[in-house]
Backbone:
């Protein structure tokens, strides 16, 4: 029942006869990364054409809209608003016509100096179409005197600070790039003879493609009629800062990211959690869907039987937008229903991936008690979240983060559980094969890689 | 990945200040029983008012439509077409004005003599509004000379043969009834001070209600300003014929039906399956979502570790209606994605709840092989389906049922699995606490309780 | 600025390869007869298919909906509600399936014993789909034991009292009929080799057809694969009662009805009005659009120059449905704007076709005064309306009819005009070539041909 | 049956409690000037908010959208595309946020150097949101260093060449201006205590306002909390070039423009036409609606009776967008229906306001012949159109203008009329009170006031 909002998903494909449909499928696989709006931009070799709307991928596009998007190269985007409000103008890809010709961009991440750059550009007479920081890239490019897009990009990225995985589309070129910290993921794949860029490898699977490798932090990938080239975009830093929440929760379990399979790494986090915080209990249950793998790992390590204690209504999206206040008050029951016959009289270990504000989790604990659980031990497969994210995840302000203002014991009391255990930062990092120093753990320790 | 279509779900509530909203929530909980259309009819004490549409409950109703449905008593219906085509006129509740006044009905089930009754009524000058058999009830009632609705119902039900759980609404009365075989479920509950009728107990949970008991086969329940009364509707039979597929697959795991919790009974079926058909393997995986509980039971009984080998895209409904032919060809990959890192080199037991035509299952087996499974053992938590259903489940014609025309060994070869095991009829019945003779097992053994 | 509501328009065509499109065009030409809803029903030789909706013809149908209406015979209807409320269920053609097969009807007129027949049928078990009287025809037909539709019609029409011009459609037959009084018009035409039935001849013009003749009062016209036949439907009466308001206002000026061209007969009414009520004035102006021809006739006869003193906003329909209360208060100014340069200092004869409640007319007179007219002489090309209509025109209750409760001099004072003249009943009847005894003049003299 | 497309209509109101509704009404009155899209932008004193859409004013706005447009100052626009394609992005008012704050503009006219300015701005890094020339004004303003909007406007207008009547809106200021040639009209009025700017005076009438005076060519009008100020915007020229087609056809007959009432001036053109080109005939008929006043004038001067020979279907807009090819072929009959009883055996003078391509007119002449007219004399109340317009009217290319490539006698033969007479340029100018040298007559004589 994770309350963190996914940020965005991006996809690009070069030279495929069904580019728009492939992009549609790629975005469908990335839908969990943003449910607010989606869009596709195609090139027919001369001009760019777009279709963007608020809503889910499957609702926005149909046969008609996809066949109107005629062309062999395309980029797409699913969005959850981080910076910039919730309105269709902010849907991406952002597309403009400027002296450089038609140009489109799809952006996953967040700039820490976006607002400052915008003010600067407006003072020089720039007119922004959106309230989204991503438009800054386009204005900087429109003003660059470098003729080649690659060179212009290298020039303008010197001014830009923050987290960005980007795909650019011109009438005859597809460019992908990832900031040198590597906050947000991006991978390179291939389907038939077409190169693909995507936020997660599950998007390659859906279109019948294969993963070649992840795009490196600080790498720019250029795909055009001459094939594939790679450039280093910047010499700013050697520090890596992969977002650790992608592995804990955001990425799909069938994706391979930062060299790991997400399903298996989360099982491992659950095992580690069981080692750090064992419990005397009869069953282990997850808070579905976010805590499932960690609960499975906990059960495997502890030997306590894994069960379903809560059933998730499959017709509810992660974020249920309820139509009435009356329903809103029913809150969690709409999403989750306890199975009394499983819970009654049992000592229960309940596992979730994280606690943000804690309000939802508290209601769930209450449901378990009402269903007859004789003891409830809460286990969380991430450390306490004490600091907000400025690199693309929509966390609340610091004072609303439960762990920023309460000790673990205070949280245990607030949750009314018999015991509470968070996975330690070291335990978390140990669950992964990559060195711990390559991750951004700012939300746990306040150690921000890029100043904001 | 069950291919059987749910039939319908019904809900009714008497004397609640937010009757339409409660019904909305009840239908939302019953959405899995029918995704084609939904409707709500309310009584304001004088007249009935309805809102019905093709689509999902959450899409059909909003604040506006619900507050227009002003009244304290309501019935609702979610539909998957069994008899009668797929068009909005057939959406239920069916509502008419006749000499008896306003009258509405919501029906779960299928009449075996529906067509014959319709012809007879038309010969007498009746004009039908729909192609749905459920309308027969209304015409029979409009023609009955019995003044009281209860008496008219008892009179007309003598002519009707087949499966029916029904709720009727008049301006000041709510009536529920269930045929004497009890094919389709219906339960009685209460929320605040209001009586509720619903297909499954999960609908009571969602509205904050409690289960009183199941409505008995052959029972008519009358709720009006004088409170609650029960009558026996018929003396046709003592035979019970509860639909066994409700327990295998149709009902939600958090529902209590026929005296059983669905989650636990399915775990038990998986255990029984493991006893009947053990396997040498490294992991047990379900075909999600339909095989999950049986796979968990199989793993528990066999000691083979339970894992996810296939990830289900949560943005796909049970029945994914793909917008283009191109996508349709991609078929199963849109719904399910294998996790190679889990499957590669492993001997896999894959568990599903049933096989109907077998085409989907065969594609999934192929995906597992492609992902590197070294052996695949298919286990099915129901017996082979050899006969079509005439009591409300949308099975294909007999010749399209794989097990009607193939031996188990032929099916094993067709599926290209190393071994195949179906749960036996006796094993299935043993998993449940009720006596086996109370169930309808016609789809397995052709023993039809009501002639058709 | 006539306040009377048109009733309905009907159209039917037999054996034309583009039957639905021809019907669409015919309805478009008849749009002035009803703007609330429209519908088309086609026969493909086996079954009937319909598309009906609230709104204007051009908004309801498009290429897609029309090509879905595949078949060579069709009927259509535009509706303004007279009996039965304003809801899409009441849109016509009404279509049912009964023992007789598929059957559709489109009705122009009003039954005086509709409610009584309905009650009678319901007592026998009939279930009505609509609140429209027109459905009575279908239930009577469904219950008739006569096998041939023509014979069943003759049988059932004995029970029906009131005004009706009707077209019936079965899978292979088109039938038109008109009550023996001939209240509402219907004509017979031909386009290419296809017979057509239509409310007015302007509908024949639009589809490139020619007028053969009017359908006679009391005549039934049967068109099928054997060609065209005519039968006398009833021997109830020899009295004719053509609706005189069709000639005064309702029918289009380019239609030929009751043997007259509507444009020329209205010019003649204006001439007669000038003879009966001359005036000393500088200009003659119409209240557009309803008074235009009478004003032209008045000007021709009197020699006073014809001018525009009020301009009608062409984007307003006859009945302007204003979106806000604020706009509703602006009232008449939205439809009509005075031309001060024409009116200032002039003695004005202003001509309209009728006065019903008089409220609108009074506002217009005030506008003319405000624009500087030095004298205003109101002339009305019909006699005072003193009695409501029960045969298909939506007049208000008697007490709301200005002329039912006020003398001409009282009306003159209320209108604040210098003089007021109504056309006399005899003068009106003299303007036409048919004998005056053939018309219904009940709205002027209370002489109702059919009891109600 | 004029084939020239109207260009645009603009409206602005300052400090009215119902600013959005007043603007809605103003646009409704100006609907004839553009039916492609419409929009309203309001200021709440701090920010600007807009609602724009393709379609007609009455379809785009409703209570909800208007009450969302909360604020006391507003501008609005109706559009027929001249430069820039037909898409919603081009709908006006155009609104941006730039360093200067929120800024909106609505434009009637056409720039002759719009494309060149756009290229220049793009070379400097500007990103255009639309393909409309009107956006040039906003980019020039965003780049101007003058702090006050009035001063910035005076500076940038030096660069702009062509026809423009403009209203600008900022959070606390309403500015109107008109190019120094005065091509397109704009007037100043007042309703209650609020100043209004509008393309035509009929918009003032609808909102219950009064005309103060026309905004002068070359005048800028500033309305803010300090009241009303006027400035001369430019010293480029003393030449006036009022668009003569506004008086011939474009403006509504109830508008007062260039000092004339449009209805009366068109009557006078008809009289002048009768003097220049008399005819031996029985009746004078207009091609409705465009030729009505000129036909009335012709009849008055010649003494030949004025009649309707063609009836216009009131449910067709000026430009009928037919839904199917089949209907498109029916062409003119959908809009106009001849009255045979009026035309048969008559010598007819038929009057229209202008001939552009001539194809529609030719079909109408044929209809008159088919209806039995024994002679047809065509009279046109404007001179032959030989040159395209570059100042805001959508004329076809020169080679498609019938009179550019044919003599009058050739046109007569092509039209198959017995005689043909065009009003002379001098006769046209004499019909008006203003000096002929103040008008642009480029479409007749190729004498273009501004080079293109």
Residues:
């Amino acid at each position: 029942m994770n309350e963190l909002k996914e940020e965005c998903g991006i996809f690009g494909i070069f030279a495929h006869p069904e580019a728009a449909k492939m992009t549609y499928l790629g975005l469908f696989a990335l839908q969990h990364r943003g449910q607010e709006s989606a869009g596709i931009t195609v090139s027919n070799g001369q001009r760019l054409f777009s279709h963007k709307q608020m809503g889910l991928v499957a609702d926005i596009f149909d046969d008609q809209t996809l066949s109107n998007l005629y062309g062999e190269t395309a980029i797409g985007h699913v969005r959850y608003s981080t910076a910039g409000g919730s309105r269709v103008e902010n849907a991406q890809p952002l597309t403009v016509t400027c002296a450089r010709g038609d140009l489109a961009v799809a952006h996953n991440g967040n700039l820490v100096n976006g607002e400052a750059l915008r003010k600067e550009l407006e003072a020089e007479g720039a007119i922004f179409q959106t309230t989204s920081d991503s438009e800054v890239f386009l204005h900087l490019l429109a003003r660059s005197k470098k003729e080649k897009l690659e060179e212009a990009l290298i020039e303008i990225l010197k001014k830009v600070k923050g987290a960005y995985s980007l795909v650019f589309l011109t009438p005859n070129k597809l460019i992908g790039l990832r900031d040198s910290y590597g906050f947000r993921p991006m991978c390179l794949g291939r389907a038939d003879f077409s190169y693909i860029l995507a936020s997660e490898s599950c998007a390659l699977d859906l279109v019948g493609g294969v993963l070649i490798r992840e795009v490196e932090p600080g790498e720019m990938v250029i795909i055009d009629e001459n094939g594939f080239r790679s450039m280093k975009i910047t010499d700013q830093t050697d520090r890596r800062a992969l977002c650790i929440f992608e592995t804990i929760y955001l990425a799909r379990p069938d994706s391979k990211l930062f060299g790991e399979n997400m399903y298996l790494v989360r099982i491992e986090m659950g095992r580690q959690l069981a080692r750090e915080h064992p419990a005397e209990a009869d069953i282990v249950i997850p808070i579905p869907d976010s805590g499932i793998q960690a609960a499975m790992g906990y059960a495997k390590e502890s030997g306590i039987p894994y069960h379903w204690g809560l059933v998730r209504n499959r017709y509810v999206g992660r974020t249920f937008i309820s139509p009435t206040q009356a329903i809103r008050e029913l809150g969690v029951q709409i999403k989750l229903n306890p199975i009394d016959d499983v819970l009654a009289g049992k000592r229960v270990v309940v596992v979730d991936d994280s606690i943000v504000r804690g309000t939802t989790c508290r209601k769930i604990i209450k449901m378990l008690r009402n269903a007859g659980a004789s003891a409830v031990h809460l286990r969380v497969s991430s450390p306490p979240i004490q600091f907000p994210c400025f690199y693309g995840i929509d966390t609340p302000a610091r004072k609303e983060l439960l762990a920023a203002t309460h000790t673990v014991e205070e949280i245990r009391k607030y949750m009314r559980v018999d015991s509470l255990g968070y996975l330690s930062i070291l335990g978390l990092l140990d669950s992964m094969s990559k060195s711990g120093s390559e991750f951004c753990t700012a939300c746990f320790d306040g150690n921000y890689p890029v100043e904001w």
Observations:
- Residues 263-433 of chain A form a domain with the Rossmann fold fold (CATH 3.40.50.2020).
- Chain A is about 30% helix and 25% strand.
